[in-house]
Amino acid sequence: GKDGYRHYMEKELHEHPVAIGQTLQRITDPAAKKIALPALPFDAASVPRLTISACGSAFYAGMVGRYWLESLARLPVDIDVASELRYRDLPLADDGVALFISQSGETADTLGVLRRLKEAGQKIVSVLNVEHSTMGRESDLVLGMVAGPEISVASTKAFTAQLSVLAALSIEFARSRGTIDSQREESLTSSLLDLPSRAAEALTRGDAIRDLARIVAEARDVLYLGRGICTPIAHEGALKLKEISYIHAEAYPAGELKHGPISLIDRTVPVVAIAPSGILFDKTASNLQEAKARGARILAFTDSKGAKQLEGIAEHIVVMPDVDPFVIPILYAIPVQMLAYEVALLKGTDVDQPRNLAKSVTVE
Ligand code: M6R
């Protein structure tokens, strides 16, 4: 049941800390602060290329995974949504590895790509919540998330659990490829192990998130902006808003604003920024300033340092806990999903069963 929560989505949002914690428990050695994944069915040091495919939220998790694998493990990564990759005539590397991400393990397009790439001789690794699924049976290796059942059509805790597995896999690849030393592995692993507490802290930001929700709920169109590893989180936020509140939302890398979407901006189009402080912060802040100058109301997710710099630009700010930059996408996914939930509450939609959508999309 819903354990006293109003919707499964609300319950499942509150399960982020447990889903992350249980997932990490399976794939880390907390005492040694090391990653402890099952043996990989290939030599991670010599993998020439990784192809990632998934749909919806799982695809955005894959986009985050690409940033980690490229920057930490120096691994060339190709990624595309399954419905596209399925029909792309892509040149594959011999000894290549294909990585699939799916909550259900049954999504038709993802399974279609899996079968095609397996046929083409790629080693198949799947990150799944339902391990005893069709994808599970057809993979060379299943990396399980331990998120527990996810009932709400809008994915929540499965997303952060997917990211937790991808983060661990990236560290594992980096270690095998000699691109990080053991000290760095320990500090990255610690930042992951610290996440359940930080996630619990994020769940306390409801009041601030409701300030944003009241503005978003009045809008017909919303723009979500991020940069770098936060761009996929902007996409996740926009997808979730569309799914459950039926408000049109688009996500853009903040730097693309002036190449088109800025023409949409006026006071009726709120801009939601995923903008933690860090090397890309100043660039995002100046994009937000440009949007504000054209009348946009700016709503931001950032940390205490970023909040100081966005004073005078952002109308409302959700101040997130300070964490290692490595885990930022995992942490920031939580309030972004909460925002969509709060907006859906204000709109009075059928949060757990949004129109036209199914939990598991088993037809092409
Ligand atoms: O079961 P899967 O993870 O393969 O499902 C993929 C997408 O259908 C899914 O993430 C969908 O986008 C969600 N409704 C997002 O909230």
Describe the structure.
By secondary structure, the protein is α/β, with parallel strands linked by helices. Helix content is 45%, strand content 16%. It has 14 helices and 12 strands. It has helices at 8-14, 16-27, 56-73, 82-85, 108-119, 134-138, 157-176, 182-193, 195-202, 206-217, 231-245, 281-293, 304-310, 328-347; strands spanning 28-29, 34-35, 50-54, 77-81, 97-102, 123-128, 141-144, 221-226, 248-253, 271-274, 298-303, 316-320. A 5-stranded parallel β-sheet has the order 4-3-5-6-7, with helices on both faces. Strand 3 (50-54), helix 3 (56-73) and strand 4 (77-81) form a beta-alpha-beta unit. Helix 7 (157-176) packs antiparallel against helix 8 (182-193) and helix 10 packs across helix 14 (328-347). It is globular and about 55 Å long. The two termini are 31 Å apart. The mean pLDDT is 97. 5-amino-5-deoxy-1-O-phosphono-D-mannitol is lined by residues 55-58, 102-104, 107, 110, 153-155, 239-240, 243, 360-361. Its EC number is 2.6.1.16. Homodimer. It is an enzyme of class 2 (transferase).
- What's the overall average pLDDT, rounded? 97
Number of strands: 12
Radius of gyration: 20 Å
Through-space gap between termini: 31 Å
Instruction: Please trace the helix and strand order, writing H or E for each element.
Output: HHEEEHEHEHEHEHHHHEHEEHEHEH
Bound molecules: 5-amino-5-deoxy-1-O-phosphono-D-mannitol
Structural class: alpha/beta
Q: How would a textbook summarize the main sheet? A: 5 strands, parallel
Q: Give the low-confidence spans.
A: none
Helix content: 40-55%
Strand order of the largest sheet: 4-3-5-6-7
Strand percentage: 15-25%
Q: What is the molecular shape?
A: globular
- Treating each run of at least 4 consecutive H or I residues as one helix, how many helices? 14
EC number: 2.6.1.16
Protein name: Glutamine--fructose-6-phosphate aminotransferase [isomerizing]
Subcellular location: Cytoplasm
Enzyme class: transferase
